[in-house]
Write a structure and sequence with these properties.
Elements lengths: L1 H5 L8 E8 L2 E8 H13 L4 H16 L5 H17 L16 H6 L11
Antiparallel strand pairs: 1-2
């Protein structure tokens, strides 16, 4: 089983910092290359750059939740949910379909709901 995971190209789990502007302030975000690749795919679907996508996600998260505690972790979760929603059929795998064109409720209806594991 582990060979499936340990055979990954080491470049995928190397981390890299990128600079983005959030509210006019240059901010550095450090993520593993795999996550940057997924964010590039998400951004490209809607004609954005990764910095533009990050700024938009940050602004919408701040508006919805009132603050952003760990933005890098949030971006990792976004990538995981994007891939999971593709597997569940909520987001088409066809990269030419913009995410903004999808009905959010229909997409989220395909997402399996699991209670988080209890923290010990």
């Amino acid at each position: 089983m582990c060979e499936v995971f340990i055979s990954a190209d080491p470049r995928l789990y190397e981390s890299r910092a990128r600079s983005v502007r959030l509210h006019g302030v240059a901010t550095s975000i450090r993520l593993e290359n795999l996550f940057w690749q997924v964010l590039e795919e998400i951004a490209a679907r809607d004609g954005m750059t990764v910095p533009q996508l990050c700024a938009r996600l940050h602004d919408e998260l701040e508006h919805e939740r009132g603050g952003v505690d760990n933005f890098a972790s949030f971006l990792r979760v976004c990538c995981g949910r994007y891939l999971a929603l593709q597997l569940s059929g909520g987001i088409p795998r066809d990269r030419s379909v913009p995410i903004r064109s999808l009905d959010a409720r229909s997409v989220l209806a395909t997402e399996p709901r699991h209670a988080p594991a209890a923290m010990t």
